[in-house]
C-alpha cells in the first residue's frame, strides 16, 4: 500500500494543497473521472468540517490528511484536533425543518458520495475515513 501524508493548517485555503495531492495520487490509481470528482467533493467537505467545526479555524491546530491506495481501493483519512461531537446527535438534513438551513449537510453529503465512510469522534478529535473502490460493486 502506498501512503501520502499531508499536514494542513486550519485555513480553508489549504484544501487546494490536499486536492493537488489527491489528483497526483489518482494519476497512479486511475479512479473513473466521475467517481474521482465524488471523492474530491467528499474529501473537501470532510476537510472543511475538520477546519471549521473541529479545529474552529484555530491557527495552532492542524489537520492530518493521509491518502493511501493499493490495486483495489483508495482511502482518505482526515483527522482534526477538535473536541469531537456525537455523530448520532446530528440533525437529519433531509427533515423538513432542516431543508433550508445553510449548514448541517456535510456528513450526509460525504456518505452519499463514497463507497465506504467511517467517522470516529472523541475529545481528542475527529477522524474521517473515506474509501472508494476501483471497481464499484453493485
How are the secondary structure elements laid out?
Layout: E1 2-9, H1 15-29, H2 33-54, E2 62-69, E3 73-79, H3 106-113, E4 116-122, E5 125-133
Helix pairs in contact: 1-2, 2-3
Radius of gyration, CA atoms, in whole angstroms? 15 Å
Q: Which overall shape is indicated by the principal axes computed on the Cα atoms?
A: globular
What is the mean predicted local confidence, pLDDT? 90
Within CATH, the superfamily carries the name: Histidine kinase-like ATPase, C-terminal domain
Largest sheet, order of strands side by side? 1-2-3-5-4
**How far from one another are the termini?**
25 Å
CATH topology: Heat Shock Protein 90
- Domains (count): 1
Q: Low-confidence runs (pLDDT<50, min 5 residues)? A: none
Question: Keywords for this structure?
Answer:
138 residues, alpha+beta, Heat Shock Protein 90, five-stranded antiparallel beta sheet, 5 strands, globular
Structural write-up:
The chain has 138 residues and is α+β, with helices and mostly antiparallel strands. It has a single domain, classed as Histidine kinase-like ATPase, C-terminal domain (Heat Shock Protein 90, 2-Layer Sandwich). It has three helices and five strands. The chain has helices at 15-29, 33-54, 106-113, and strands at 2-9, 62-69, 73-79, 116-122, 125-133. A five-stranded antiparallel sheet has the order 1-2-3-5-4, with helices on one face. The longest helix is centred in the N-terminal third of the chain and has 22 residues, at 33-54.
Amino acid at each position: 500500500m502506498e501512503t501520502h501524508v499531508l499536514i494542513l493548517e486550519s485555513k480553508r485555503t489549504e484544501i487546494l494543497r490536499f486536492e493537488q495531492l489527491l489528483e497526483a495520487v489518482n494519476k497512479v490509481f486511475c479512479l473513473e473521472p466521475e467517481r474521482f470528482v465524488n471523492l474530491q467533493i467528499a474529501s473537501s467537505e470532510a476537510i472543511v468540517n475538520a477546519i471549521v467545526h473541529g479545529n474552529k479555524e484555530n491557527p495552532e491546530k492542524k489537520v492530518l490528511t493521509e491518502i493511501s491506495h493499493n490495486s483495489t481501493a483508495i482511502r482518505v483519512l482526515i483527522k482534526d484536533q477538535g473536541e469531537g461531537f456525537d455523530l448520532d446527535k446530528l440533525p437529519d438534513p433531509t427533515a423538513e425543518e432542516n431543508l433550508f438551513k445553510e449548514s448541517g449537510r456535510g456528513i450526509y453529503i460525504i456518505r452519499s458520495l463514497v463507497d465506504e465512510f467511517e467517522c470516529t469522534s472523541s475529545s481528542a478529535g475527529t477522524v474521517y475515513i473515506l474509501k472508494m473502490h476501483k471497481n464499484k460493486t453493485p
